[in-house]
């Protein structure tokens, strides 16, 4: 465990009982002047998150109060694309409104992961997201500071710790799926057909030809791996990936003419937190590393793809679609009906299976297998066969073929 001292040093001592590391009276007089002269620094490891750094970056939120001490340690579950740090804070008064626990998301120390994130601009996009998108009434974790250095590719996002909320991962329940649909509709309604989202570098834009061409090529290249894993069990998915690769520009032009909003794009249960069984905590969405200015329905597609077996999905998807549309209407989106939704849902099925294909080609399958087995699931059924069933039921390949050139 790494403890941060007020003077910027740190020490490690698993046997040491947590202390407040009180700032001495001499330093309390003008601590803000001192940190202002230093300027903000982006921590590259847990030990860089000191009490002094916290005072510096939290200054806009402290309302004259002070962080007296802090304790940092790696988060209980390692991040896939970032290093996650668990922070406990002690303030000079119990009247300070800030939480006593926070999470810091740092650029990955693993060089391969870091390079992958550089290629896809993950840190650049997510830090910018938290600087531009917020709202107390929206299902977002509260962010207190985000910063990115394009030179070093260091990044930090400092946000509230969501405990006692929890992530159900692959064991998401039907009730939680319904709640997640209602909550994401709040994001979608807020920025529905709002030109603001098309101006944001924090979001992947539909008219970014390099991004979508690379995605199409990545999905097509993954076909060989998918067929090696499940032979010919995913014919509709394979066909859809080939059609998308061949017609990428036409498909993206079609999507660009559709209704658009802030789309999370990887909206599944590992990216969301729910209140615990006692009702404590809140619902919140995390990980906005490659969000898109695109069709909101695709988030619903992604959620039910990874969150429900094919049998469970078939029983409730009509109700899910209806509830989503009703929530949009309650929030002011009145010109979007079921027919329009189903067009975007077919596009969402393409997107979610495209992500799955690329992930399978780039991820150690033993990790996927281990994660799914912990929840009593077959990873191939989750990551391939569920999406294949959706592809076949909605006849996505024929839909893609039928898109007229613009």
Characterization of the model:
It is a single chain. By secondary structure, the chain is of the alpha+beta class. It folds into two domains: 2-160, Phosphorylase Kinase, domain 1 (2-Layer Sandwich); 169-401, Aminoglycoside 3'-phosphotransferase, Chain: A, domain 2 (Alpha-Beta Complex). Helices cover 47% and strands 14% of the residues. A seven-stranded antiparallel beta sheet has the order 2-1-3-4-5-7-6, sandwiched between helices. A three-stranded mixed beta sheet has the order 8-12-9. A two-stranded antiparallel sheet has the order 10-11. Helix 6 packs parallel to helix 12 (310-330), helix 7 runs antiparallel to helix 9 and helix 9 packs across helix 15. The longest helix has 25 residues, at 338-362. It is globular, with a radius of gyration of 23 Å. The chain starts with a strand and ends in a 5-residue tail after the last helix. The model is unreliable at 1-39 (pLDDT under 50).
């Amino acid at each position: 465990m790494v403890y941060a001292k007020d003077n910027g040093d740190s020490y490690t001592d698993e046997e040491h009982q947590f202390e407040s590391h009180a700032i001495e009276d001499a330093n309390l007089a003008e601590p803000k002047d001192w940190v202002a002269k230093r300027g903000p620094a982006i921590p590259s490891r847990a030990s860089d998150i000191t009490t002094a750094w916290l005072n510096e970056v939290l200054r806009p939120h402290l309302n004259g109060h002070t962080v007296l001490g802090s304790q940092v340690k790696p988060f209980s579950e390692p991040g896939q694309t970032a290093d996650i740090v668990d922070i406990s804070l002690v303030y000079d008064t119990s009247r300070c409104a800030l939480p006593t626990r926070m999470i810091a998301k740092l650029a990955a120390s693993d060089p391969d992961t870091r390079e992958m994130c550089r290629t896809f601009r993950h840190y650049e996009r997510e830090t910018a997201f938290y600087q531009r998108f917020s709202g107390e009434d929206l299902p977002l974790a509260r962010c207190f500071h985000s910063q990115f250095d394009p030179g070093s590719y260091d990044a930090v996002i400092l946000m509230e710790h969501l405990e006692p909320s929890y992530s159900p991962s692959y064991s998401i329940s039907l009730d939680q799926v319904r709640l997640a649909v209602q909550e994401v509709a709040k994001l979608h309604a807020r920025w529905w057909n709002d030109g603001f989202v098309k101006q944001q570098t924090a979001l992947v834009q539909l008219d970014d030809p390099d991004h979508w061409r690379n995605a199409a090529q990545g999905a097509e290249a993954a076909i060989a791996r998918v067929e090696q894993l499940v032979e010919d069990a995913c014919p509709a998915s394979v066909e859809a990936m080939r059609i998308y690769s061949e017609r990428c520009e036409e498909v993206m032009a079609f999507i660009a003419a559709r209704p658009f909003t802030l789309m999370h794009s990887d909206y599944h249960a590992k990216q969301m937190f729910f209140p615990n069984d006692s009702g404590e905590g809140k619902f919140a969405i995390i990980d906005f590393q490659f969000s898109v200015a695109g069709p909101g329905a695709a988030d619903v597609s992604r959620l039910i793809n990874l969150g429900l077996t094919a049998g469970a999905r078939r029983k409730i998807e009509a109700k899910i679609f209806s509830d989503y549309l009703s929530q949009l209407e309650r929030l002011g989106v009145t010109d979007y009906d079921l027919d329009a939704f189903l067009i975007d849902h077919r596009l969402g099925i393409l997107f979610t299976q495209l992500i799955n294909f690329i992930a399978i080609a780039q991820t150690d399958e033993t990790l996927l297998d281990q994660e799914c087995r912990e929840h009593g699931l077959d990873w191939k059924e989750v990551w391939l066969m569920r999406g294949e069933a959706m592809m076949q039921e909605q006849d996505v390949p024929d839909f893609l073929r039928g898109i007229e050139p613009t």
